[in-house]
Amino acid sequence: MGREKSKQDVIMLSVVQISLAALFIIFCRYNSHYEIGKYTMFQDVHVMIFVGFGFLMTFLRRYGYSAVGFNFLLGSIIVEWSCVCLGFYNMSDDYKILISIESLYQADIASAAVLISMGAVLGQTSYMQLIIMGIIEIAVYSGNAYLGLQVYKAVDAGGSIFVHTFGAYFGLAVSFVLNKKKTGSVQESNLEESTYTSDLFAMIGTIFLWLYWPSFNAVDLSGDDQHRAVINTYLALASSCVTSFLMSQILTDDHKFDMVHIQNSTLAGGVAVGTCANLMIQPYGALLVGIAAGALSVYGYVKITPIIEEYTGIHDTCGVHNLHGMPGVLAGLFGALMAGIASESLYNESLYEIYPALSSPTSQADTEFTQTGPGLGRTAGEQAGFQILALVTTMAIAVVTGLITGGILTLKGISSPLTKNNKFDDLIYWTLPNDIEKNTKITKLPENQAYDMTTVTK
Amino acid sequence: MGREKSKQDVIMLSVVQISLAALFIIFCRYNSHYEIGKYTMFQDVHVMIFVGFGFLMTFLRRYGYSAVGFNFLLGSIIVEWSCVCLGFYNMSDDYKILISIESLYQADIASAAVLISMGAVLGQTSYMQLIIMGIIEIAVYSGNAYLGLQVYKAVDAGGSIFVHTFGAYFGLAVSFVLNKKKTGSVQESNLEESTYTSDLFAMIGTIFLWLYWPSFNAVDLSGDDQHRAVINTYLALASSCVTSFLMSQILTDDHKFDMVHIQNSTLAGGVAVGTCANLMIQPYGALLVGIAAGALSVYGYVKITPIIEEYTGIHDTCGVHNLHGMPGVLAGLFGALMAGIASESLYNESLYEIYPALSSPTSQADTEFTQTGPGLGRTAGEQAGFQILALVTTMAIAVVTGLITGGILTLKGISSPLTKNNKFDDLIYWTLPNDIEKNTKITKLPENQAYDMTTVTK
Amino acid sequence: MGREKSKQDVIMLSVVQISLAALFIIFCRYNSHYEIGKYTMFQDVHVMIFVGFGFLMTFLRRYGYSAVGFNFLLGSIIVEWSCVCLGFYNMSDDYKILISIESLYQADIASAAVLISMGAVLGQTSYMQLIIMGIIEIAVYSGNAYLGLQVYKAVDAGGSIFVHTFGAYFGLAVSFVLNKKKTGSVQESNLEESTYTSDLFAMIGTIFLWLYWPSFNAVDLSGDDQHRAVINTYLALASSCVTSFLMSQILTDDHKFDMVHIQNSTLAGGVAVGTCANLMIQPYGALLVGIAAGALSVYGYVKITPIIEEYTGIHDTCGVHNLHGMPGVLAGLFGALMAGIASESLYNESLYEIYPALSSPTSQADTEFTQTGPGLGRTAGEQAGFQILALVTTMAIAVVTGLITGGILTLKGISSPLTKNNKFDDLIYWTLPNDIEKNTKITKLPENQAYDMTTVTK
Fold it and tell me: Taken in order A255, A260, A263, A265, is the CA torsion positive or negative?
């Protein structure tokens, strides 16, 4: 790495942290209203963000330091920035952002969107590009979540629309632009492989994500809603795990299990059940959603990703389209369906807590719950429409702002894109231990032969 | 793996997941009664099942994918199946199984029994054999737990009898049958070894099991009982850790620590204190139980396992007899002893909550607590007898049904047993990365020499 | 390891565990007063001690078993011993130590001090030296904490003075003595290096420490204090993570990130904010403390540690001076500053709960809170003085008792110091798997060359 380049990185990173501190000085104060009971689920989400996403991305043979390290760095910046961005939409009368434990888990959840996008471009960017991407993304994320939740009054308990779908398509759009520019063809890199050990490290991430996902989908809920979210997510994850194994054996060439599917598609149930996590989908509904999501996700890895790459040039390193993109869309559609059939007979008075935009009875006029609250007087069908609208708007905003962000990332002077020879390589940014052969480059030989180490000049 | 065989696997796994979904559709609904306060300990148990057991079994050099992967798959199937099986003994009036957060942790606890059995046969079965074993085992587990807890009214707070002892002896019986059949001598496999890295991965499992074990023993309790269970388990684990190190240095040939003991025997205190976890054994009682369990467990690894293997042919891959079997029996005996000396003077009125089958005073006739509840009018001595009965019945049922299950697993057509050459090998079921020499077989050379890689045809 | 030596180890370890059991028999009973609500944060701290510290120290290429194993053994002994030592200062009327969940997390926190000291001497001691060190250290720790908290009435919510500063300087003093004695120059060992895999294992420790640190700083608090401690710790850790990356890029030779800094300095914010974690430092105060701590810590690794080593001979294997020592002093000074400016206008009546030694109003005479409690009638300025006194006393006691302890550890007959050839080597105490070349010694070649394996006699 050139001396000049590293100087620029240092200046930019300093500016970012100092600006964040300045924003905190001006705007952020303690909130005296909080629910300490949220602490347990907050910590579970916290583990998902930094252990889960961090280790899940360590699957590459020589990008483990960057995966867990840049996830750590990016996550830390983004949680600070999210406290500010999310707070801007909910300021106190004296223009202060009040920080409580709720701010912390909301910041963690927001950072999930950025780390999903990071998965799409993993190994294809400099770390400064990741940070710039994340800062722009959270600004857009906050606005889109405000639009969807406060304006449209859409419902999305586990953030499948506003976090997973948004993060995936934003990242894919960025990857599209990065791969259009003259950064060299990614597919030829011979470092984009796993090792036996790196795949086991990645499983640490997978399992912790899988275990704590019920907290992710339930942390912002309470009462029966929260209880249902825990049960539904637990069951959807169990069935998406089983289905991922099944589909992996069906779809891989030699009918063996592929670690990529086990590391990722097993989690698709958590995404797909997210929007409806708190709804009366019944335990079997959760199981069926998990089955659909697991199957769709593995199918995506085997069949859809290669097609997307061929026709659009998008290189989706972690396959976020299969873990977060398509399952997120599935969640959004399922959420619209459930909204369309929501009724007082199913939810009793809690209907108007779950869907605050409904206020008059959905089917008959003379129900006892008629006077529950203000609401917007929507019917269930109209709510379903707004659910679809939120999903479509989210995807559109993600793609458009992702493309723009990709353009910014490739502006000359703002950041230096990687070249073909240093993608997926920790060596660019990290002092590596002596067991890594620094001056050699691993070249892939014909199938079933061992590696050949040839010294190259770098 | 043959094409025909993988087709059969795919069909069976599909049938399993579809059947489970059908059972959920027919029987399972949300329970509106639940204790969300159980969520923390439930999540701890959840981590134990999937991170703890999963990584503990990654100690083999080329069976790490299978260890953590099949633990993941098997656990997911079993938690679904356990919700149904355990629910059958506690249905609502309209024949529905009501799912609450309690169902989820009970399902996790039940799956521990199956994963313990998996440890006994690790690397010796196809994955489909594991699934069939698990499905049968949970059906038997549910019945045995009902018999012991509801009929005998035995007390076993941490499941040492019904989970650990049951799972261990069931698995050992299965291993007995598998090794009687013509599947080749297991001991000669040169893949049944650890590497420096695989042993460290296994320690992730060990430590998480050790840390969260107090939750395992206390999740189903409340009040003082729960508090004592936390303290007793914490202390028993601390002393069994210390004692395992001590005994490992005493009993190994060159008086060095053996990773097998550290990974497993350190946990024996959690098993041995389980039945009495909530009782007034005092902190020192917990310490002494932990010392006894750690010592017994290491002794088992060094002295007893080789004898069992020689005389019965049982190959106990993870040594579950030493971690779950003998410490479970110790727990059961200690539980009988504590039941025999239980009295009102020790427990006050909580005596009849802890031992619901006692209802008249145990020593004097004119106590103030005489009228506490219905009960079965047992004396403390009788309760001790029922504790022993539960232990003996559990072992007998485990062995008999384990033998039958082993027989089923080796039926031609139902499953294909592994041959001598593909035991302890991820290669059969997994697409492996290129850093694994797929065409070579590792042969062990005389002591202190490095490995020699010789190419073999497979 | 000689037969005679291992026999001595076995006898000593037996004596330790038997003595602890005897102390428990005589003194320890259940406490019927407890707060089960502390369980969540207790478990988080528990994970920090055994996963966090354990894996953080696995970064050495051939000391991973010892790192995670001896951390496990030492932690287990120390939590037993801490229950007794801490209990001696708080006995019941009948001279019993009452064990509750509070005892467990206090024991875990105390063991952190010992494990920090272990970090200073990692790889330089026999395991028995570690145990002797830990036993002495906890006795001193308990007395010093009593002096600081009960006598001086100093305030230190997150234990930055009494745990981190104490543990660091105690360990450095021990290391000073060990390196003065004829145990060979440590710096020449060619095993004191990491590998790519060992650094990733260490990151497991780092991330879990980072995640659960808010629980460490908040577990012993309640209400608004606890809420502030969570927010402040979370934010200080985020900014110290960002700053560590920044400073690592600035200060390393080739302007790349150094894993040592990422593994350790990212955590310095948690230490530096500890003393003030519950105070009204505002979110930006936490951010700024984190920035200062991260910068100071990396600067310490790059510039200060080599100077200390050159002039004093202290070899600080994990760099605890940079992670716990200097950030702990920073925390203590910041705590004194905050005490000096504490006033009723800032804290209202909670001022006298936070600082129990204040009882008269700090600024004006006729406040409504004048009669709040007994207190010692201190002014805020006086409290600041006592905070400084606690910090200075702690450092002095740590250094003096650490030097004495180092002297005891090097007494002939009590323990056998390692020689130059077996430092940082698992081989002395562990049965290693066959993938480790037991008869070879790794020699470092000139930069950028691969390792050369030469057989040496051992």
Answer: negative
Q: What is the 3-state secondary structure (H, E, C) of B96-145?
A: CEEECHHHHHHHHHHHHHHHHHHHHCCCCCCHHHHHHHHHHHHHHHHHHH
CA distances (Å), origin C155, targets C82, C118, C158, C202: 21, 26, 9, 32
* ipTM of model over 0.90: yes
Provide the 10 A C-beta neighbour count for residue B12.
Answer: 15
Residue B40: which of A114, A104, C36, A337 has the closest Cα? C36
Q: Which of B120, B161, B121 is nearest to B141 (CA)?
A: B161
pLDDT in tens, C195-225: 999 999 999 999 999 999 999 999 999 999 9
Q: Does A87 touch chain C (CB under 8 A)?
A: no
For residue C3, the one-letter residue type is R
Helix (H, G, I), strand (E, B) or coil at C90: coil
According to DSSP, residue C420 is labeled G
Q: Does A73 touch chain C (CB under 8 A)?
A: yes
Contact A439 C451 (CB under 8 A): no
pTM, entire model: 0.94
> What is the residue extent of each domain of chain C?
3-420
Residues 6+ apart with CB under 8 A from A394: A144, A148, A161, A162, A165, A166, A169, A332
Q: Do C196 and A435 touch (CB under 8 A)?
A: yes
C47 lies within 8 A of chain B by CB: yes
Q: In this structure, which CATH number among 1.10.8.640, 3.30.230.10, 1.10.3430.10, 3.40.190.150 belongs to the domain B40-221+300-320+379-417?
A: 1.10.3430.10
Torsion of CA C96, C98, C99, C103, to 10 degrees: -110
Chain B CB within 8 Å of residue A195 CB: yes
Give CA separation, A272 vs A165, A202, A288, B22, C416, in Å.
10, 22, 10, 20, 60
Q: How far is CA A114 from CA A73, A136, A308, B93, B302, in A?
A: 12, 10, 21, 49, 51
**Residue A441: half-sphere exposure toward Cβ, Cα within 13 Å:** 13
Helix (H, G, I), strand (E, B) or coil at A369: coil
E strand or H helix at B30: strand B28-30
- B47 CB within 8 Å of a chain C CB: no
Q: Would you say B50 and A208 are in contact if contact means Cβ atoms under 8 Å apart?
A: no
What top-level class would CATH report for the domain A3-420? Answer: mainly alpha
In a 10 Å sphere around its CB, with 0-12 CB exposed, 13-18 middle and 19+ buried, how is residue C333 labelled? middle
Judge: C258–A24 Cβ closer than 8 Å, yes or no. no
Q: What whole-number distance in Å separates Cα of residue B44 and Cα of residue B42?
A: 5
Residue B33 CA to chain centroid, in angstroms? Answer: 29
Q: How far apart are CA C120 and CA C151, in angstroms?
A: 29
Q: What is the pLDDT of residues A160-207, one digit of tens each?
A: 999 999 999 999 999 999 998 654 444 556 799 999 999 999 999 999
Check: CB of residue C304 under 8 Å from CB of residue C106.
no
Question: Would you call A279 helix, strand, or coil by DSSP?
Answer: coil
C-alpha R_g of chain C: 22
Is B373's pLDDT higher than 70?
no
DSSP C110-159: HHHHHHHHHHHTTTSS-HHHHHHHHHHHHHHHHHHHHIIIIIS----TT-
B259 with C430: Cβ contact below 8 A: yes
Q: Over the range B141-170, which residues count as b (16 or more CB within 10 Å of their CB) and which as e?
A: bbebbbbbbeebbbbbbbbbbbbbbbbbbb
Which pLDDT band, with edges at 50, 70 and 90, does C106 fall under? very high
Yes or no: say if A97 and A84 are a contact pair by the CB < 8 Å rule: yes
Q: Which residues contact A106 (CB under 8 A, 6 or more apart)?
A: A82, A86, A220
Q: Percent helix, strand, coil in chain B (nearest 5)?
A: 65, 5, 30
